[in-house]
Amino acid sequence: MRILAIDYGEKRIGLAMGDSANKIAFPRGILQNSPRIFEEIKDFCRKESIDKIVVGLPLSLSGQDSAQTKATRSFIESLGQNINIPIVELDERLTSVEARKIVHGDKKPRTRASTVRGRDIDDIAASLLLGQYFQVKK
Q: Where in the cell is it found (predicted)?
């Protein structure tokens, strides 16, 4: 089964892909969040023969919904209305922090921005999310 992971953001959407047989996730790029986003995701899924989508749900550290959680749930609902592929939500707490560490190392980043050393990290966060999904589904 080919799976697409999505790290949703108001400006950028990170994509990662993997196969449930080998359980390896690969960053696959970043899309700009635009009015055409659902068409772009649909095209990607068609080209890559995606069977399932995993979307990261950004809960607060205490596990509560935040403003970003609500925005992500709205995105998931709209995505479901635009694509005929099963969608799974998965807690994504700290995936962006881990992605920053992968790109930036142990040094603390100067900002919380999703760009480190001139490189967006959204697709790396999506890859970490998919890796978590594979671990949960062992």
A: Cytoplasm
